[in-house]
Design brief:
- By secondary structure, the chain is mainly beta.
- The strands form two sheets. Strands 1, 2, 3, 5, 6, 8, 9 and 10 form an eight-stranded mixed β-sheet that branches. Strands 4-7 form a two-stranded antiparallel sheet.
- The longest helix has 13 residues.
- The two termini are about 25 Å apart.
């Protein structure tokens, strides 16, 4: 087991999921409630991965908690790593989409839910990184990315984003 040197900064990594539920040419999005991380911003549904669950289980649980919907046939698009100015903390987000959902749409304390047309995506009210990778998700592509945000977490300072070939028949 590798040991951390005294002079190495500690790095905290948080693992999360985001899911875009697609119905025709619309997404189900949530505008995060005041007092929550990302308050006032539109995004897909999702949240933290718990220690005892897979990323797919976390995605399905978070979607249900935030919307009352059950999701199936999750398509994994890839991961995005977010780093922030003047901190060693990073967030790795596993990105999913699905067209398979059931249940009664129910709002939660997490925020306001809305179906939003692909051609009306409110990029100006979303995390700054979304404009780079969300079009790839709409096209059904798989991708991986790294985004470096300013200290206020309002602007992308630098990024790397690449499309990747989907894994097929991987065991």
């Amino acid at each position: 087991m590798a040991r951390k040197r005294k002079d190495e900064p500690s790095c905290m990594v948080i693992y999360e999921t985001v899911c875009y539920i697609i119905d025709g040419k619309k997404f189900l999005m949530i505008k995060r409630a005041e007092g929550l991380f990302g308050a006032g911003k539109w995004s897909g549904l999702g949240g933290k991965v718990e220690a005892d669950e897979s990323k797919e289980q976390a995605c399905a649980r978070e979607v249900y908690e935030e919307s009352g919907l059950h999701v199936d046939d999750l398509k994994y698009h890839g991961s995005l790593e977010f780093r922030f100015e003047n901190t060693e903390e990073s967030i790795i987000v596993y990105v999913f989409s699905t067209t398979s959902f059931r249940g009664q749409l129910t709002e939660s304390p997490e925020g306001i839910l809305r179906w939003i047309d692909f051609d009306e995506i409110p990029y100006g009210e979303m995390w700054d990184d979304s404009r780079y990778w969300l079009p790839l998700l709409i096209e059904g592509k798989d991708f991986n990315g790294e985004f470096h945000f300013d200290q206020q977490v309002s602007k992308v300072l630098d990024y790397k984003l690449e499309t990747v070939e989907p894994l097929r028949n991987w065991k």
